[in-house]
Amino acid sequence: MDAQLLISGVIFGLSIGSIFFLMAIGLSLCFGLMRIISLDQMLYYSIGGYLTFSLSLATGSVWLGVLGGLVVSGISAFAVERLVFRRIYERELTFSMITSFGILIGGIGIIKFFWGVVPRPVPVPIQIQTGIFGTDVPVYRLVVVAVAILVYLGIWLFLNRTITGKAIRAGIEDVEHVEGLGINVSRLFTITFIIAGSLSGLAGGLHAPLIMVDPTMGLEVLAFVFMVVIIGGLGSIKGTLISALIVGQVVSIGSLIYAPLAQMAPFAIMLLILLVKPTGLYGSALLKK
Amino acid sequence: MLKAFQWWRGLLLAFSLLAVSRVFLPLPFVIEVVIFSVYTIGCSFLLGRVGFISFGQPAYLAVGAYATAFYLFYFGTNPYVGILMGVLAGVAVSSIVGPLFVRLRSDYFALVNLALAVIVFYLMQKVLAGITHGDNGLWFLTNIASTPMLDLSRPSDFFIFSFLVALAVWAFYKYLDDTVYGACCLATKINEDKLKFLGYSNYRVRLLAFIIANTTTALAGAMYAVYLGFVSPEMSSPSRAADPVIVTILGGVGTLYGPIVGAFAYTGMKDVISKFIGNWELFIGFLLVFIMLAGEKGIWGTLQPWLAARFARKTAVADASTDETETRR
User: In chain A, what are the domain boundaries?
Assistant: First the structure.
């Protein structure tokens, strides 16, 4: 394998890993704080992708579309949290999984209703290429990576430097104690869910120019996002980042070696890691509920 | 004698109702219901008795279906052998992945199992495209030979066959409920520490349950393959992963007859509603959310206490004890 192919492979892996990271962080935060598995993150991802498509068609600017996707998916996350999740926080984990799968399937139905079933292309906002070690790399992919890094730093600052963020981190440790301190846990849940939903929407918007948007796009990334979350360990931001990088590289380099490896290799790695550590790399040892 | 009759009473009643429905309803519909209920009972058993939610059922369905399809497409013509191949493949695959999966916490189990379904989908669609013919699927309807007693290539005979298989499956699961093992399953769902104190291994109980449930699902897959005469990766696609879970919940989680009622209601609604709304997923998604928010009892779970109460009033007091055991399921 020559160096040029390898470099473009690594960049591709980084960008796809960034997308997975943005989505997995939502799932991971929701699990950490609320102890729910929110499969409807994939729905906000599709919403982000489709709004990017529609707004870029209407206004001509993809960035405006990404922003719109972020806002609208945040709003839909808020609505879903208020209407559905509010009632099921107390229930078992599997309960939230079934319900959110229902929301995901229903949401895909709504998307089909509005936009039809035909895959739609989204233009790439930055067409230019840049040279890294003599290899031409699309700048847009680098921008995606940069956005993911910014989001990671932002989340880190939010969780470590603000009172709300500190409350969320404390809530991941022990929700009842946080509630005992007089912090409005219910508001905390809503904030976390909106953040998770908007980040998934952002992931969808950023991913849209790289793929075609179609109604089942959420289901296509579902397996990869799951693998990221499982390898990293549910509820850990750091673990999510590391495993997103691993999965991104495995998908990209694997497909360079032998195309079907792109789907199979991450799964094999996930099974290996689960064999050694059943809770993932950074997962909490016990499920507190 | 009377005991034996009482044990079989519920089963026979349910299945004679199913047999009667064959007269009134179109044949493909009834066959679909029967296979679907066999498909679902594995999921219902895992969720209701062992406490594992399995979104990965389509993976095992596809394993059973493809094993049957490979046999009928490449090697032989006898559909019975094909179905046997499907069941054996189900046993093999669930014994391989089982030891790894059942060690996991229930939340990881759910995620990993769904990931497995997606992987099997990719495997059949892309990786093994050379022998599975990818999205085109395998067509082998003409390969199926006529068999002397029950000719599986004829739908009316296939109905009798699937009916008998379903009856056997239900008798098996009902028997399982009565055994110590069935009690162990329930115990591992409710309190695994106590089961450990009693000297049972949670791991073994779960592994066996996992293998039993997924083999049943593979059997359903094998029956689908023989009935339709073709298989495609579509049957394990992620968008269908929720089907067995929806039917389980629609029917009532953990009840013995829930899967039949659920499969009946689900297939019926699908046929009726898809005539009016092209967008079937929209409806089923929100139905699922609604049932979950409404208390997740399902149709049979709501209906059954009412039926039991009516039934108890009619029968003599002497029957009270057996009725109580009936009410449990």
Answer: 21-216
Phi, psi of A132 (to 5 degrees): -120, 115
On whether any CB of chain B is under 8 Å from the CB of A216, the answer is yes
> In degrees rounded to 5, what are phi and psi of residue A138?
-60, 130
Average pLDDT over residues A209-230: 84
Task: Tell me the residue type at B160.
Answer: I
State which amino acid sits at residue A214. Answer: D
How many residues belong to chain B? Answer: 329
Chain B hits for A279, Cβ within 8 Å: 105, 108
Q: At what angle do helices B79-101 and B57-70 cross, to 10 degrees?
A: 140
DSSP H helices, A39-184, are 41-59, 62-80, 86-88, 93-115, 139-161, 163-173, 175-180
Asked whether the predicted pLDDT for residue B1 surpasses 70, the reply is: no
- In this structure, what token pair is assigned to residue B18? 């199913």
Of B108, B118, B249, the CB nearest to A222: B118
State the DSSP string of B35-79.
HHHHHHHHHHHIIIII----S-HHHHHHHHHHHHHHIIIII---H
| pLDDT tens for each residue of A10-50 | 888 889 999 999 998 888 888 888 888 888 888 999 999 89
Q: How far apart are CA B147 and CA B77, in angstroms?
A: 10
Host H or E run for residue B208: helix B202-228
What separation in angstroms does the CA of B108 have from each of A74, A89, B142?
Answer: 27, 18, 43
- Tally C-beta pairs within 8 A across A and B: 140
pLDDT, position B312: 66
Concatenating the DSSP letter of every residue in B82-129 gives HHHHHHHHHHHHHHHHHHHHTTS-HHHHHHHHHHHHHHHHHIIIIITH
| Structure tokens given for A137 | 């790399």
Reported pTM: 0.82
Question: A107 vs chain B: nearest CA distance in angstroms?
Answer: 7
Rounded CA-CA distance A231/A272 in Å is 10
Interatomic CA distance for residues B299 and B48, integer angstroms = 15
* Gap between the Cα atoms of B235 and B218, Å rounded: 12
Sequence-distant (≥ 6) Cβ neighbours of residue B264 within 8 angstroms: B33, B37
Tokens representing A240?
A: 């999510």
Q: What is the least distance, in Å, from the CA of B280 to any CA of chain A? A: 7
B318 to chain A nearest CA, in Å? 40
The answer to whether B107 touches A93, Cβ cutoff 8 Å, is yes
pLDDT at position B322 over 60:
no
* ipTM for the complex shown: 0.74
User: What phi and psi, each to the nearest 5 degrees, are found at residue B296?
Assistant: 50, 30
Cα separation, A1 vs A6, in Å, equals 7
- Round to whole Å and give the CA distance between A28 and A11: 25
> In a 3-state reduction of DSSP, which class is residue A209?
coil
Interatomic CA distance for residues A237 and A234, integer angstroms: 9
Per-residue pLDDT band for B321 (boundaries 50, 70, 90) equals very low
